[in-house]
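An example makes the point: we let one protein speak, the chain in one-letter code, the fold tokenised, and here it is:
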Amino acid sequence: MKIDLPPYISTGDPGSFAQHTLRKRLPRQINEVIARNSISEQAEHDLLLLKKELLNGAIKDPFGDEFVPSGCFEQEELSVWKEQIDLHKGRPWGAVPWYFAETLFYIRLLVDFGYFDSSSSMYGVDPFQPEKDEELFSKSGCLSNAGRVTTLLERTRSLSERIMLLLRCSLWGNRIDLSNKSIAEGAWNRILERGEKNILIDHSESLAELLSRTQRVDIVTDNCGTELGCDLLLAESLLKMPGRRAVHFHLKKHPVFVSDAMVKDMQKTLDRLSCEKDRKVSAFGKSLMSYIKEGRLFLHDHWFWNSPLFYTDFPEELETELSESDLVILKGDVNYRRLLSDRWWPHSEKMEEIAGQFPASFAVLRTLKSEIIVDLEEETVKALDRVDPRWMLNGERGVIRLVEITGNR
């Protein structure tokens, strides 16, 4: 990291998307959790108090004995949370680093919902499952879109063309983010509509070439549903290549960010794909199941993916695991933000200089949903501002950014 670090993006930045998230999006998510789940009166009361707290209250520690049984968290995970909360305890929710506020919000939501309470009927219940199922099972959702992509793949004439198409599908599938419904609505209809012109940084050709010779690829996931289906299509294509290749998926330990994928979401997706009436889709699902049995497709979760830490602070065991990879593919806006420590970097800064400490070569596939981006000249930024003042927020543009770390493995 550089010595002269810019400030963190804060929930107190006037007019920012971070401020809008705290005041509008997170309270709306509380309303939807209450509306879509059969929770107790106490849980509803606690969630409504959290909603008020976001607007007028201060940060407090939810990890006392009366809130969370200690067995739900690994010791290092709990220590990290306590350390980070102590940095901000007592400060208003509207005046703290945005990423910290978001991750703490979801932990607080799970606590108040009863997710960690073994005496609650909501113990271990994903509060976002109704929305996840809606996207997975709807006629216009994951299965339908997987079928469309398999049809598109039949038209490709070379391995490189196939991989580049799958990279674009994996990129634009990231638009379907249930935590931001204004972007998710009707997103698939525009996934490939604008093609490459809305990919602001496009390293897909170099990335496809690198993928053609990698033995191990790790994918740090973002959303389940359609996006996860696109990620699985990419993984299956890689596993079909000659040689005993392996793909490792890294998933969330607890529910977070509404549609972020957990191991159980992956398993449910694979089961659903395997049972689909469309033979191409069911064959795809069964193929992935066989790779799991063969020990070539792996599903991992880890507390770090839910934590408030950035990618400068990997736990030792996770850093060692990722260093074994030939390439790590990081999906989505949050992973991009964590690479950049969610700071107000000048747009012209270079990803290699900020995130060069990453333990392996990596690629970012991200549709823009927040006010952070690097690797762009200021003239480009000004031109985009003139054409579309919300270009950094509306999910219409994306990046496929490759960073090769020398000396890996």
